[in-house]
Amino acid sequence: MNPHKNANTGLLLSLTFLGFAAFAPAQTTPTVQVTVSPATTSLRPSATKDFGAYVKNSNNQAVTWLVNNIAGGNATIGTINTDGIYTAPAIRGALTTVTVTAKSVAAPTATGNATVTLLNPTPSIESLNPPAVNIGSFGVAISGKGFLPTSKLLIDGVPSPATYVSPTELRFSATYNTPIKVSLSVVNPDPGAAASYSKSLTVMPPVALSLSPETTTVRLFATKKFTASVSNAVNKTVIWTVNDIPGGNATVGTIDATGLYTAPTTLPTPNAITIKAVAAASSTAVDTAAATILNPIPVLQSTLPATLPISDNGTFVVTGTGFIPTSTAKLNNVAIPATYISPTQLRLTGPVPASVGNMALVTVSNPDPGKYTSKALSAPVAVDNPKVTALAASRFLEQASWGPSPAAIARVQQLGFEAWLQEQKNIPASDYTVANNSQEVFYLQSQFFTNMLKGQDQLRQRMAFALHQIWVVSALKLGRSYEYAPYLRVLNKNALGNYRTLMYDMTLNPAMGNYLDMVDNEKANAVKKTAPNENWARELLQLFTIGLVQLNGDGSPKRDTLGNTIPTYSQEDIIQFTNAFTGWTYPVTPGKTPKAHNPPYFNGNMVAWESLHDTTAKSLFNGRVLPPGQTAEQDLNGALDNIFEHANVAPFVALRLIQSLVTSNPSPGYVSRVAATFNGRGAARGDLFAVARAILLDPEARAGDNPVAVGLINPNDPNRGKLRPPVQYVANLLRTLDATVIVENPIESYTADMGQKPFYPASVFSYYSPFSRVPQSPLAGPEFQLLSSTTALTRVNMVYALLCHGLDNEVKFSKGPFLQLASDPAALVELVNKVLLYGRMPAEMKAAIATAVAADQDPECRVEIALYLAATSGLYQVQH
Amino acid sequence: MTVNRRNFLRMLGMAGGLGQLSAINANAQSASDYRALVCIFLLGGNDSNNMVVPLSAEGYGQYAQSRGAVLNLSQQVLLPVTASNGAAYGLHPALAPLAQLYNQKKVAIVLNVGTLIEPLTKATFRSAGSQVPMNLYSHSDQQNQWQTAPAASTGRSGWGGRAVDVIQYLNGPSNFPSAVSTAGNSAFLLGQTTIPGTVNQALGLGLEGSDGSSEAVARDNAFQQILTFSSGMTLVQAANKTAADGIRIGKTLNETLAGISPLTTVFPNSGLGQQLAQVARIIRIRQVLGLNRQIFFCTQGGYDTHSDQLTQHQNLLTTMIQAVNSFYTATQELGVEDKVTTFLESEFNRTFQPNTGLGSDHAWGGHVFALGGAVKGDVYGKMPNLTLRGPDDVSDRGLWLPSIALDQYGATLASWFGVPDGSLTTVFPNLVNFPTRKLSFL
Questions:
Q1: What is the DSSP string of A766-823?
Q2: Across chain A, what does the average pLDDT equal?
């Protein structure tokens, strides 16, 4: 019971009673009557209707409800609840009407009826399955409500066959050959005939599928997203295969439902694979993509260990990604064997050389297919347990070699100075080759520079050139290689030998004989009124052995009581020595008959022709007299011995070699120590290796190896060092930058522009005088003779040419280590400082260079600018 | 900054400051108070015995006798010139232009000049108390002495540089040195205060890569800045100073020469010819440079003819005189032939006696000449007696004792250049030892 409803009913009944009571005449107990309202109604399946019952003439309004005389009804005829709410059956069946009856509880015989007409449902289409179709024959399931076996399907208003499946589903089939959009509706018949709203069905062209990209490459380990566009289908789902394997596999790679392809970890064979997509909507909608599987891109992250020990036979691990068993590696652009460990590790085994800045560049390359070289990884390299610092080794090599190449620095650091010198002593000389008799000395100049860069005999080469600057033969007069090369070999042979042997070999060298006129120098000829040529004797004494004035052991001139210097020889001495050296001619050309004046031939020693030799007695130094009647050879050796024994030779040679190798202004003590070695302290008199060693290991040479060292010799002596002469300037730069040079290189033309054309000194006075001074200063500065306001700029412009076009593109060096830092001016300058100035660049200079570097955005230009400004600075131009 | 060499040179040629100079007609400059000295140094020791030969019967007889067949020039090939006193001389056959200029009275031939500290005779030369120049017969020392006229007070300075020290006040302020060498550093031009410059044979040099871009400007600024940093190291400071000079000189020369048309005078393509061509260019722009006094140093090498002398010497003198002659023509073109005096130096004469190698060896006094419109053309001095072991031979091979000191020859030039008489002994301290300080050829 619904109390609420009862109350309303009670009120209504009460009012009705009062009305009746007021206006109806009193009667005896009347008959109870029941009225149902509404009396008739129509309902669609499952629709409800709220019936009301009025029990007349009874205070008891309660009724019971029946449908077709069945209390509460049932599913077939519909049900009614105690409140009189009737629900039509969900399925009408054959019934067209039912009777709803209300029976008074008070007077059960009193009933009232209402008639319910049952109608067909109103159909509705909720969805189509499929919601769209493709041309051709197709079937569609129509989902909806209110469908009857008698429901009719209208397609564009035209009744069409459909199959009743259930009240919620109809099916139909159709055939269309062109795309179209049709309108579907469902109509139910009477009773209650009704039509659904229409639903459109699109008949599309056939299902199509296209795959993108159509062709592609995928690297091992990498993924690639493929996109399949399914058109004309509602179902966009595709089925993926790799080489017809659904989803692929580890060999050919896998692909997931989204089309994300993951390449395998090793290269399949063949490496061309096919990705296929099939539309779920249509097995004929298929597309394929061709993918070429490539080797991965190697990416380098670090080395283990982080600093690589410099070694001829090193091993280290490089970590990164994208490594494969066929990966190869390079260290500083030189192949180094690589062993595959894993995709993230390779082991490299081989020489780990020193390199510019000792920042080695490692690259890993993967081969084809898809060959690729990684970006370079820079890894520091260093000598394990170095005997000396890099600064000390570099300074030492500026003095002892043609410059501190990375390899040479490492070697000195490994061996220490003494052992390095001993090693150098035994390295054979870099030779000169002469292809034919027409070759000019240019070819020797080129070899001179290639030898500097390639030859291991660095100490010998440096000493040979220092001795060349003393024992001058100029190619201005002997311009053919075959004339000049034997002279260079004499220098090489004796550079670390004995000075007395050098004197002998030079005296009899045909090029020297030609240059200074000892060849074919006859004794005086009374008939021709000629005297022997004095040139050889004079220059031998003045320039090659004792000089013009008597020297103290420390190289300073002796003075007489008036303070004047004391000549070493007189014109008469010159004549005496000249006579001693007469009677020599060119070596006998093989196959020729010896003559008084042999034709020019430059191999081997000059030979004597005794009848042209002056056989008178010769008065030499210190009262030594060569007796009359000696042979040319006897006189020659007697004269050379006499000169060699002169007290000047040691300080004369010591000063020149110190100036060539180490410093323009050695202290008297330094000269004395080296001269003492020349004079036989610790080695044979005249031993040039011992002299070189004494020069290079002297505390004065080594002061500066440690700039903050405190000792007797000031490492920061303001007068220290020497201006690099042009040949050394270029050589030092090239070696420092680890440059290579073509065989027929143009370097000589650059040094000539700077005032020093190698092997072509202007005269026997060499390229510059050991007596030249630093301008406006009492200091010695031999090389300053070549530094004019003109050559100061040609020197700078040489550096420009070297850095910017490799001296006409014939010199090559790697800017690699510097380019690594090009984006960071301060770091770039620091590396340049390390490489060129061994860490000695002042802060203000660093700042100036960094500012100029930052003004240029191009990485190569930045490197060039930084190197240019450092290499042209006075601090670099002066070896110190 | 990657610019190749050739492009750079082209840029350099176009980069000069045209605006400043375009209005100047270099030929129209006033030459009212201008003088220039041009020293041509013949390196190696010129055999001036064969440059000027006496043609008197006695003189030529001595010549022919001692030069032997080896170095003898026949009378037929010698170019005859006559001194105002009637004496006849023969010039080397290569020197036809010189003979011509001599006949126009533009050339002073000065005989037997050499390095001396005080007047010497053969007797005093041998005596212990005499001052004899150090290291006679040594190239390096005698070159140095010819250039420096040394004395205890002169240090390492040269007499050309000291002359500029004295007359520097005559020049206006200039970015360009008064003393310029076309042959690299020289002792000659270095003064006590004067710092000479060098030029090469083309335009002035600049820094390659200076293309005017902001990057290049930044680079060059840093370069200049680094030159100014004090390293505390003498050699570094000296190198920096020279580079700074070079940049200033090169820039001045480029800016000043830009846009000026070339001289019509053609110079020979020899080293000396090109050096003198550059000297002529610089003389031409003297007014723009603000210089009323200029001194130049040029060299020609190869005179150390110890063997096979005759051919070599012929070639050397030909090259020399062609260049000198062109230069004189250029001074005429510029209207300064009276303002420019060119003069020869060489470290020594050669032994009169040939050696067995068809050459000659180092000797002492020799002959030189000065050339120019201001020169009083004649032969000055005394031809030595050309007899071996004769009165003028200090040895037995014909090493002439000079009768005129380099200092007297130089003082004559320096005096004309503007050095007051009172300052001549500052420039040539040893002049005090000589009764005659100046010769009369200028």
A1: -SS-TT-B-TTSSSB-GGGGG--TTHHHHHHHHHHHHHHHHHHHTEE---HHHHTTTT
A2: 93
Q: A688: helix, coil or strand?
A: helix
**pLDDT the model gives residue A26:** 52
Residue A153, beta-bridge partner list: A160, A186
Residues 21-60 of B with CB under 8 A from A: 43-44
CA gap B197, B194 in Å, rounded: 10
Helix/strand/coil for A738: coil
The A residues from 749 to 778 touching B (CB cutoff 8 Å) are: 755, 762-765, 769, 771-777
CB pairs under 8 A between A and B: 262
- Among A99, A77, A97, residue whose Cα is nearest residue A87: A77
d(CA B428, CA B442): 17
Q: What is the mean pLDDT of residues A145-165?
A: 92
Q: Please determine, for residue A671, whether its predicted confidence score (pLDDT) is greater than 60.
A: yes
Pairing mode of beta strands A722-723, A618-619: unpaired
Taking chain B (442 residues) in consecutive chunks of 10 residues, what is each chunk's mean pLDDT?
37 35 36 88 97 97 92 96 97 98 98 97 89 91 95 87 95 92 94 91 80 94 95 94 94 88 94 96 93 97 93 97 98 97 98 92 97 98 96 94 98 97 96 96 96
Interface test with B, best of A573, A789, A869 (most B CBs within 10 A): A789
Contact B233 A880 (CB under 8 A): yes
pLDDT of amino acid B3: 40
Structure tokens at B270: 């020899």
Asked if the model's pLDDT at residue A592 lies above 70, the reply is yes
B296 CB neighbour count, 10 Å cutoff: 28
Of the candidates B181, B208, B245, which has its C-beta nearest A797's C-beta?
B208
The string of pLDDT tens digits covering residues A765-824 is 999 999 999 988 899 999 999 999 999 999 999 999 999 988 888 899 989 889 989 999
pLDDT band at A90 (very low <50, low <70, confident <90, very high): confident
Q: Report yes or no: A531 at the B interface, CB cutoff 8 Å.
A: yes
pTM for the predicted model, two decimal places: 0.78
Please report, in angstroms and rounded to a whole number, the separation of the first and last CA atoms in chain B. Answer: 54
Query: What residue in A sits closest to B201 (Cα-Cα)?
Result: A790
With CB atoms and an 8 Å threshold, state whether A521 touches B356: yes
The shortest C-alpha distance from B161 to chain A (Å) reads 13
| Whether A800 and B208 lie within 8 Å, measured CB to CB | yes
Asked if the C-beta of B5 comes within 8 angstroms of chain A's C-beta atoms, the answer is yes
Look at B250 and A793 and tell me if their CB atoms are within 8 Å.
yes
C-beta of residue B110 within 8 angstroms of C-beta of residue B439: yes
Q: Which of A790, A852, A855 sits opposite B200 (nearest CB)?
A: A790
* Token output for A111: 């009933």
With CA atoms as reference, the chain A residue closest to B231 would be A875
For residue A772, list chain B residues with Cβ-Cβ distance below 8 A: 185
Chain A residues within 8 A of B217 when measuring between CB atoms: 855
Pairing between β-strand A811-812 and β-strand A740-741 as defined by DSSP bridges:
antiparallel
